[in-house]
Amino acid sequence: MKALSIQQPWAWLIVNRIKPIENRTWKTPYSGPVLIHAGKKVDRQGYDWVLETFKNHEFIKTMPTLEKMPTGGVIGASYIYTCTKISKEKIWKGHNYAPWYIGPYFLELYKPKTFEMEFIPCPGKLRFFDIPLKIETNRAYRENCLATMLRMPSGFIDLTVTSPPYDDLREYKGGVKAFDFEEIAGELYRVTKPGGVVVWVVGDQTKDGSESGTSFMQALYFKKIGFNLHDTMIFKKKNRIVTNHRRYEQEFEFMFVLSKGEPKTWNPIKLPCVEAGKKRKWKDTCVGSKNTKSSKAARYRSGRVTVTGSEKTKGNIWEYATGAHMTKDKIAFEHPAIFPEGLPRDHIFTWTDPGDVVYDPMAGSGTVPKIAKLAGREWIASEVVPEYCDIIDKRLKNTFKFPPKEVE
Q: pTM for the complete prediction?
């Protein structure tokens, strides 16, 4: 993939979505994704200028010292919209680019596709140069899921099971509230195999007497970009809901099952039939119907005797206990929103076979990778909050007893 070497602190400012352009003395027709490489040389004068110029801005509080900024490798990625030449006088005072522009050319960067990545040590070069990206299975990446998916070839993932931080319903560490939904959805479509499935678990916030409808808007967007809305399933919570509003309290979340074409794997969960073994003789009319004219199906069954089987396929409303019953891993409860372990277990069993690759782009407490491993599947996880990455590592350290598997 194309990469561009930039001195610190400018590289850090770009991948943290603070600096919206990159100055160059040369012009390029290139437009597309680019890895941000932090060169070994640093700009101390530039760092002091940033501290003075933006001393009243919030980002100064979190900007590391120049000595702590990583150098000599890839630290993130961005997306080049265009390369533009313009005189400094034409960028009016107060414009977002004004304090950053030197010229004569600048690369305009697309903010939603700009993010930090786990550090990749490698030498830099002048102008654009290529860096091969690799993805490892059976590993949790401490980075934005867009960065992890950037490493993946197209059509790589068999199943994604995840729940995004929707509608500010939880307080997450690191201030995580919003996320780049459309960019994530587009990348999920690219990395999902033909016949692969995405299970998107989401709910809605009720504010000022009205539900947000975020879940439906997201489902419709997934359809817009090419996914099939294969099934709208319900995750019903067994625990009693306390009634404190002038409406019936919400005790479920949606599980949108999105497929890239017809699902390639279908291992239905079976339940015992209550009337197993019961014989039934069919008549030539529809039971309970005033219309005595036989239907085609009724005529076909007329006079036949059937025996109810011992099993039936489970319906699409799945009920799980929440709260303290979700897992025996106490450390998982340090995360504000964890999955009942049965939820990913049942989806992994249904939509994948042993050896398939399961992905959770917002891994939280690590429930999906844990269950994927126990089910004999390859797995990949992404988590951007360092505290939650620590939870995943601690929770799963006894689950994994083999090295990561590297994939070109």
A: 0.84
